[in-house]
């Protein structure tokens, strides 16, 4: 399969200062991450809160600038593209955010929310824009009359459908879905996930699907990357991760899996909380919580090695 997005050595560090006079500290939210996303796949990014998933999703589509590294979209390094040439890539790569209550402008009509990007990206007449908005709303299960209402008049699930319509109206190829259903009721979640699957098949879309919920990953993903403190711990096909997990962190996450649709977040896996990302542990970043850690893990950082074709693991004991 063709590669749509290739990321090489991607880093995103955030500078934080306790006061104006103190020295800066860096949160390495994404720390030297490399992977490929094949066209048409659903590439799930999982990990606990603070592992860098959202930062990764926002950085690969350049909503935030990377600190360093390459992002090759359809073969072009978009980190090196001038602003005016980037507009076309912006159209091709869209994002649907977690919270449908805050991501839609409260004082704009649905038609203006969904149609906003059309004015920027396409030179269309207003009657053409109207038809396009109507079509896209129907596609996500909404009706023409909804165009003239405000976001607060809709339920969470309907709002997320509007957010999906806003992303799709630009005919993108790649969608970053950042926890798209975690703010929704269980029954609504399943319907939105089914819609996302259907849209992917209809339009040949590629998804980066960010979630805490491994049951959702099992239901949706074709490929999975497991992140911890800004690093990839394990990566492979869905089968590699769910049937042949190699990393102790992945195994612990799988043990904490909720049944599908409960929406429960991964909060506590064995042995305590995630360390402070501004001061990560030495050696293997997971060693402080790992049941298999030995002395070497405290000092030597394991490399991400390919344990079988396409299946990568970062642990001294990965088989
Ligand atoms: N703008 C920012 N400034 C400083 N630190 C940030 C910023 N954005 C994110 N971070 C930090 O980067 C780390 C990774 O955050 P990120 O939101 O990407 O993780 P996440 O895995 O998506 O977690 P969650 O699921 O809770 O959103 C966290 O320690 C977070 O506090």
UniProtKB/TrEMBL annotation:
<dbReference type="GO" id="GO:0055085">
    <property type="term" value="P:transmembrane transport"/>
</dbReference>
<keyword id="KW-0067">ATP-binding</keyword>
<dbReference type="InterPro" id="IPR003593">
    <property type="entry name" value="AAA+_ATPase"/>
</dbReference>
<keyword id="KW-0813">Transport</keyword>
<dbReference type="Pfam" id="PF08352">
    <property type="entry name" value="oligo_HPY"/>
</dbReference>
<dbReference type="GO" id="GO:0015833">
    <property type="term" value="P:peptide transport"/>
</dbReference>
<dbReference type="InterPro" id="IPR027417">
    <property type="entry name" value="P-loop_NTPase"/>
</dbReference>
<dbReference type="GO" id="GO:0016887">
    <property type="term" value="F:ATP hydrolysis activity"/>
</dbReference>
<dbReference type="Pfam" id="PF00005">
    <property type="entry name" value="ABC_tran"/>
</dbReference>
<dbReference type="InterPro" id="IPR050319">
    <property type="entry name" value="ABC_transp_ATP-bind"/>
</dbReference>
<dbReference type="InterPro" id="IPR003439">
    <property type="entry name" value="ABC_transporter-like_ATP-bd"/>
</dbReference>
<dbReference type="InterPro" id="IPR013563">
    <property type="entry name" value="Oligopep_ABC_C"/>
</dbReference>
<comment type="similarity">
    <text>Belongs to the ABC transporter superfamily.</text>
</comment>
<dbReference type="GO" id="GO:0005524">
    <property type="term" value="F:ATP binding"/>
</dbReference>
<keyword id="KW-0547">Nucleotide-binding</keyword>
<dbReference type="InterPro" id="IPR017871">
    <property type="entry name" value="ABC_transporter-like_CS"/>
</dbReference>
<protein>
    <submittedName>
        <fullName>ATP-binding cassette domain-containing protein</fullName>
    </submittedName>
</protein>
<feature type="domain" description="ABC transporter">
    <location>
        <begin position="5"/>
        <end position="254"/>
    </location>
</feature>
């Amino acid at each position: 399969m063709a590669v749509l997005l290739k990321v090489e050595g991607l880093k995103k560090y955030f500078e934080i200062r306790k006061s104006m006079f103190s020295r800066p500290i860096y949160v390495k939210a994404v720390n030297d991450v490399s992977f490929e996303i094949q066209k048409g796949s659903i590439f799930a990014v999982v990990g606990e809160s603070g592992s860098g998933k959202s930062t990764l999703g926002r950085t690969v589509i350049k909503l935030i600038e990377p600190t360093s590294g390459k992002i090759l979209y359809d073969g072009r390094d978009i980190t090196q593209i001038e602003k005016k040439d980037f507009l076309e890539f912006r159209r091709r790569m869209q994002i649907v955010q977690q919270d449908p209550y805050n991501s839609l402008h409260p004082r704009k009509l649905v038609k203006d929310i969904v149609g906003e990007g059309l004015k920027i990206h396409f030179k269309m007449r207003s009657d053409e824009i109207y038809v396009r908005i109507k079509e896209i709303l129907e596609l996500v299960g909404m009706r023409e009359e909804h165009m003239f209402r405000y976001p607060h008049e809709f339920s969470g699930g309907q709002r997320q459908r509007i957010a999906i319509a806003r992303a799709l109206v630009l005919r993108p190829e790649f969608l970053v879905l950042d926890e798209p259903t975690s703010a929704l009721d269980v029954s609504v979640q399943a319907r939105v996930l089914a819609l996302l699957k259907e849209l992917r098949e209809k339009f040949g879309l590629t998804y980066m699907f960010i979630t805490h919920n491994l049951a959702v990953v099992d239901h949706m993903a074709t490929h999975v990357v497991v992140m911890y403190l800004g690093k990839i711990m394990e990566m492979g096909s869905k089968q590699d991760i769910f049937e042949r997990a190699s990393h102790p962190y992945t195994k612990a996450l799988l043990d904490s899996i909720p049944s599908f649709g409960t929406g429960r977040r991964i909060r506590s896996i064995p042995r305590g909380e995630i360390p402070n990302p501004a001061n990560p542990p030495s050696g293997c970043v997971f060693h402080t919580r790992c049941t298999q850690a030995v002395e070497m893990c405290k000092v030597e950082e394991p490399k991400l090695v390919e344990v079988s074709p396409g299946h990568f693991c970062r642990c001294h004991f990965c088989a």
